[in-house]
């Protein structure tokens, strides 16, 4: 029964990811119906990260005190209601505001979920289930990119927003009935025992932010998420502009997003066999940098058209699949670099906040580069800079003996 409950918690994460990733396949329709510019589309992609960018650390500090179950359920409620309301949005400003609300819901779901899974499953199954939790984002992206265009072909983008809102509220009901009500209460009691006075949260905050390790892993996550969300977010638009059909675009983009799960699973396998974390990170960032050069720079332009297209697709799959080792490794490192046991959730919250910052900035940067240069051929420069910074940060973690 505990494993069944934990699987539903993973399902809640996938549901939250669906809301983040429903926008990329809808961008062409939104641009046509609402007259959204390329730069506005970039902000629509990234605005869902506004809450995580500003509140990740706060939620990391307070999730246990609020109650894990309560946070998860209210996050899903916010996602569902905002999505339903979004179906009646008639301007980019309304969509931006609702995306910000969805971002808060996403944060409330994803921050307490790993701790809730640890509470629900036996110790011997915890690593495997947390490994599955690590796939929630690429799995949600794959489903949204694969099924979203098909659903929009039947019901329009408004129908997709409405359907996901109803689905999410249904998941809320299921988890409300399935998860024991005392999970949140027990979490609150445990947090209260730890917080013997009102200043304890400030102590944990200072312990976290005065150490270099949490800053390094947070910056590593930022330069990863900046690249991944920007590339995945604009792939449907790029493929449609290149003349691919809607069905082909959906399938190709879903395969790229789904391949990221391979890296997430592989990171645990590699670390478990003694490969140094810095080497795993170097592999991931290196593949991301080379992948985007192959996909967007025109370096394959001398090949026959069919071979060039295959080469570009293989490059972007390399970017996503091998790059997937980065987040899995960073979640492991966050536990290592936390100053003590009581600051692990705070360190993860800080890392999530920087991840959101990366996702928030990546899409507008890539969109602005494409708009200024008149095409996507120089967007690889943005991702190459991020990959280079990631390589240097991983080296620094290794120098400190933390990777």
Summarize the structure in words.
Helices cover 85% and strands 0% of the residues. It has 2 domains: 196 residues, Growth Hormone, Chain: A (Up-down Bundle), CATH 1.20.1250; 205 residues, MFS general substrate transporter like domains (Growth Hormone, Chain: A), CATH 1.20.1250. It is globular and about 60 Å long. The chain starts with a helix and ends with a helix. Helix 1 runs parallel beside helix 5, helix 9 packs across helix 13 and helix 14 runs antiparallel to helix 16. By secondary structure, the protein is mainly α.
Proper CATH architecture of the largest domain: Up-down Bundle
Query: Could you give the distance between the termini?
Result: 37 Å
**Overall pLDDT confidence:** 82
Q: How many helical elements? A: 18
What is the CA-based Rg, rounded?
A: 20 Å
Task: Quickly name the level 1 CATH class of the largest domain.
Answer: Mainly Alpha
- Beta-strand segment tally: 0
Low-confidence stretches: 182-188
Counted up, domains total: 2
Q: From the helix content, strand content and strand pairing, which structural class follows?
A: mainly alpha
Instruction: Kindly estimate the percentage of residues that lie in beta strands according to DSSP.
Output: under 5%
Task: Provide the CATH topology of the largest domain.
Answer: Growth Hormone, Chain: A
The string of secondary-structure elements, in order, is HHHHHHHHHHHHHHHHHH
Question: Could you describe the largest sheet, including whether it forms a barrel?
Answer: none
Share of helical residues: over 70%
CATH superfamily of the largest domain: MFS general substrate transporter like domains
The gross shape turns out to be globular
């Amino acid at each position: 029964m505990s494993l069944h409950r934990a699987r539903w918690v993973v399902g809640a994460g996938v549901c939250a990811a669906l809301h983040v990733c429903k926008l990329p396949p809808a961008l062409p329709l939104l641009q046509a119906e609402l007259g959204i510019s390329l730069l506005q589309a970039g902000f629509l992609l990234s605005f869902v990260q506004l809450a995580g960018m500003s509140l990740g650390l706060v939620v990391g500090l307070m999730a246990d005190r609020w109650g894990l179950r309560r946070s998860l359920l209210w996050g899903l409620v916010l996602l569902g209601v905002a999505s339903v309301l979004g179906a009646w949005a008639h301007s980019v400003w309304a969509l931006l505001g609702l995306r910000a609300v969805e971002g808060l819901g996403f944060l409330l779901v994803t921050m307490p979920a790993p701790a809730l899974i640890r509470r629900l499953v036996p110790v011997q199954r915890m690593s495997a289930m947390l490994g599955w939790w690590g796939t929630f984002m690429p799995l949600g992206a794959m489903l949204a990119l694969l099924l979203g265009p098909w659903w929009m072909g039947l019901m329009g983008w408004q129908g997709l927003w409405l359907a996901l809102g109803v689905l999410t509220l249904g998941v809320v009901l299921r988890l409300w009935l399935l998860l024991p009500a005392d999970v949140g209460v027990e979490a609150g009691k445990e947090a209260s025992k730890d917080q013997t006075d009102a200043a304890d949260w400030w102590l944990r905050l200072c312990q976290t932010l005065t150490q270099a390790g949490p800053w390094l892993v947070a910056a590593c996550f930022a330069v990863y998420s900046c690249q991944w969300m920007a590339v995945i977010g604009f792939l449907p638009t790029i493929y449609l502009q290149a003349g691919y059909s809607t069905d082909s675009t959906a399938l190709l983009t879903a395969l790229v997003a789904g391949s990221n799960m391979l890296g997430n699973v592989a990171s645990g396998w590699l670390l478990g066999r003694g490969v140094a974390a810095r080497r795993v990170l170097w592999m991931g960032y290196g593949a991301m940098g080379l992948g985007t050069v192959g996909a967007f720079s025109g370096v394959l332009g001398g090949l026959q058209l069919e071979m060039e297209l295959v080469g570009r697709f293989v490059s972007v799959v390399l970017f996503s699949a091998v790059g997937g080792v980065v987040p899995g490794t960073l979640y492991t490192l966050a536990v290592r670099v936390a100053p003590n046991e009581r600051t692990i959730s705070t360190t993860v919250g800080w890392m999530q906040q920087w991840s959101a910052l990366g996702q928030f900035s990546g899409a507008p940067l890539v969109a602005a580069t494409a708009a200024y240069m008149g095409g996507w051929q120089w967007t690889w420069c943005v991702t190459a800079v991020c990959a280079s910074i990631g390589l240097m940060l991983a080296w620094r973690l290794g120098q400190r003996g933390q990777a």
